[in-house]
Amino acid sequence: MDAREFLGLQPTHNPHRWFLPVVPGICTGHGFLFGGCGLGAAIEALERTTGRPVVWATAQYLSYAQPPSVLDIDVTIAVEGHHITQARAVGHVADREILTVNAALGHRDIDASGAWASPPDVPGPDECPGRSLRLPGEDSIMTRLEVRLADARDWSELDGAPGTGRSALWARIPDLLEVSAATLAILGDYVPFGLSQALGRVGGGNSLDNTLRVARLVPTEWVLLDIRIHAVANGFGNGAVLLWSETGELLATASQSTIVRTFDEFPVGTPPPAAADAPT
Fold this sequence. Notes:
Blueprint: H1 3-7, E1 10-11, E2 17-21, H2 35-50, E3 54-61, E4 70-80, E5 84-93, E6 96-106, E7 146-151, E8 166-172, H3 181-187, H4 191-199, E9 203-214, E10 223-233, E11 236-244, E12 250-262
Antiparallel strand pairs: 1-2, 2-4, 3-6, 3-9, 4-5, 5-6, 7-8, 8-10, 9-12, 10-11, 11-12
Helix pairs in contact: 2-3
């Protein structure tokens, strides 16, 4: 199964238009489209339309899409050069815009490479405990991921004591072992998890944006999510996720700004406020 099939992204007769049925399997436990899945679907549409791999893609989340709606994704090629294409994808439900993704795509052969960041020193995935679901039996993207706690607290261990701002998870998608930019977009959407770890409170956040920068795609079953929270202030948080292969190669980086929420404010199963707090 590739990323397009995993997400359920479908082509149309127009090569610049795609559509994504919004089903629980690509949604959060709160019942709206998971931001990483939205970005991943847009990346797939951009790559398949242009025929080039994503170098970076940034999503601005404007509203929420909930089942059983259908997200139409329209791709516009702004500039197409010899090696690089600049393009955007707009996802909307009817006339309501849900997300806008800007991206650069391409590949250049150049005799220079390297990586200067380093992964955290954590046990391998087989040595780490699994992360429990807060609502066992829920139908969401979380039931399609396998996540293990490399350097992080489970739900019951979040006792209000602040963390260091850095946490780590091993993650994989059992049905999707192919490493692609779309796969990394899904797995990179973990700054909200890091916020709960940093604050020591059960919660997370709703993403305002998400930027994926691809370094190198190499085969790996598990991806190490190196989550770094930079700050929380004025009701918002920001941070980054470095995504590493099992052999320690940097695959990509992701960064986000979020609306910080705790589950006592925003109970599980309740849609986020669509008017007052949804970014517009």
